# Entry
Amino acid sequence: MVATPVLNFDLDAYATPRRQLIEQSLEQYTALCEPESLWQSMRYSLLSGGKRFRALLCLASAEAMEHLQPAGLTAVQAAMPCACALEMIHAMSLIHDDLPCMDNDDFRRGKPTNHKVFGEAMALLAGDALLVLATEVLLRKTPLQVDRQCLIEVAAELARATGPDGMVGGQVSDSIATGLVVPTKSLSEQAGLRTPVQADAPTAQLLESIHKRKTGALLRFATWSGARLMQANEDILSAFTSFGEVLGLAFQIADDLLDLTGDLQSLGKTPGKDQAAGKLTWVSIYGEEGSRRELALLESQGKSLLASCGLPDASTTALRALLSYAIHRRN
Amino acid sequence: MVATPVLNFDLDAYATPRRQLIEQSLEQYTALCEPESLWQSMRYSLLSGGKRFRALLCLASAEAMEHLQPAGLTAVQAAMPCACALEMIHAMSLIHDDLPCMDNDDFRRGKPTNHKVFGEAMALLAGDALLVLATEVLLRKTPLQVDRQCLIEVAAELARATGPDGMVGGQVSDSIATGLVVPTKSLSEQAGLRTPVQADAPTAQLLESIHKRKTGALLRFATWSGARLMQANEDILSAFTSFGEVLGLAFQIADDLLDLTGDLQSLGKTPGKDQAAGKLTWVSIYGEEGSRRELALLESQGKSLLASCGLPDASTTALRALLSYAIHRRN
# Structure
């Protein structure tokens, strides 16, 4: 990660040791067991060197509450299983998104996609397995010092952020908007179902709603959950939730811009793909300039939210740096 | 359900009102929201009139502990969210199993399969959504009177029973045994992975291990979780876990026999399909007579386990009747 000029903070120095801990934990949670080929398939996608942005966000949010730590427990220890659960769900979403019946992608981060290596059936099952392993790790590995009702809320909220109200629902809306999913009317009617409501013509509102759920829900969960696991008060939880929403939208707008302006080497994927596919993006609605203006606005909003939540500035430096990173990154 | 001659107990009279409550709860947990077509796809498979065997088992297990109920809470209230979570995971497994990259089935219970109605992408996502909704319902809808650490253990165990050590892992082993999943050696090696270990030649041990995980893990979870939610003691939990294992194996052997001896009308699917596909089944290894002998043995074992766990006979009548049903059913 490149430290941004916005803050006098070395994001690399912050992220590198934490990323090492994340990798160690993920490695430990997915030690090879039987059936070995299933675990290999899961590990192939999970341990393929992502940026761990979601996990870092969750840890940074918990660390902002370090002063609330229960005796003998650091914020990183309290939030690490949750951070890893987030990475498992992210990995699962990429495996299923790449399947032939979805985006049908052959490469991801310069490597063959999961189903190209292990076959479609195994990729499907590896995704399913990662989805439930995320819950198991969160529930079993979160230290006992973390309040139990707190942990239950976090696990339930992770499920909500992943499911029909969150990531999966956003994926469905996106697929409907781009025409990938067209419910078979005649068969639905034959089965005695109401004809599904078709999404309205692509609009800014629809796009924002898709972004908020497809990528935003997990990012919002990341900033909320870190603080919740540390038993932050309602004011802080509310501010962190809004911060997560702002960051999530900024992350996706930056993604849309990168598709337009990025180069193959930095991106690790072909730029212009979304545009060529006629995909609904922020840039296609507001143009490059409009998107950059929105990003600047979101960066300022995010910082204000953190400034006004009553925590000392030093506690939220890493969160601010991660917001800036999300906006100014090159890949 | 047909009451069996084994017990002087009217299973229908027991199951019918509970099944109505299960349907009502499932209906309530999946009220149509946005994106509507996703919820329709989820509901299409979830509310398609299954026998609710897993849910009934979980409720019967909790009811056996009715004397331990916290004030103002019935066993059915305590266990209903868990029972419904089980049905959601079962429905999800059927949706994903039917996909073209898995069993490629066009019909299930006499209706077009989910992907034939909603398309492959939606069926994939509806399965994912049901998988996480199960966790959310269990965690959010289980009454607050149920001990929180208890609930955490039950949710973690549900994830384990579903994932690589349970249902999904059993599905992978089954797929390897039948040749559906053949990890692409050259690509695995190219990706720097160890060559996956191939399963041994089909053996009785392998088959039992597949059965125990693919269908057995959720059935064992069903009998354990009902008792655990009611804070049963270790002796009872251990007996109920063993009972669930015995019942799970019996359920699957009965399934294998039904494939051989059932008729189209009762089964709702073509009999002989497993045999024609050269599938590894109990009957293919032990023959019809050997399978029936094993079933008789399991029925007797299951009853002994319940008799020796210290509960009054009347408390476990429904569990015994469900075991007999699993063995003597016609579909």
About this structure: The longest strand of chain A covers residues 107-108. Residues 11-182+199-328 of chain A form a domain with the Farnesyl Diphosphate Synthase fold (CATH 1.10.600.10).
